[in-house]
Amino acid sequence: MSSKRINPTILVIIMLGIGLQITFAHSVSTNIVVIFVTCLYLCYCKASGKLLILTSLYAFPLALGSWWSFIMFGTGDVWHTAWIYASRVYAYLYLGAIVTLTVSVKNILLSLSLHLKLSSTFVYGLLASFNLLGRIKHQYKTIRYSAMMRGTTYHFWNPSLYLRVIIVALNWSQDLAEAMTSQGFTEGAARTLTYKDNLPKWQWCLATFLILLYFVFSFLVRPW
Amino acid sequence: MQTVDHTKKGWSVKDVIFLAIIAIFFGIIYQVWSFAYYAIAATPLKPYANDLTLGVWIMAGPLAGVLLKKVGASVVGELLAAAVEMLLFSSWGASTLISGFIQGIGNELGFAATGYKNWGRLGLLLSAIGSTIITFVWDWFQSGYSEYHVGLLVSLFVIRFVSIGFFSGVLVYWIKKLVNRSGLIK
Question: For residue B157, which of B34, B63, B54 has the smallest C-alpha distance?
Answer without folding.
Answer: B54
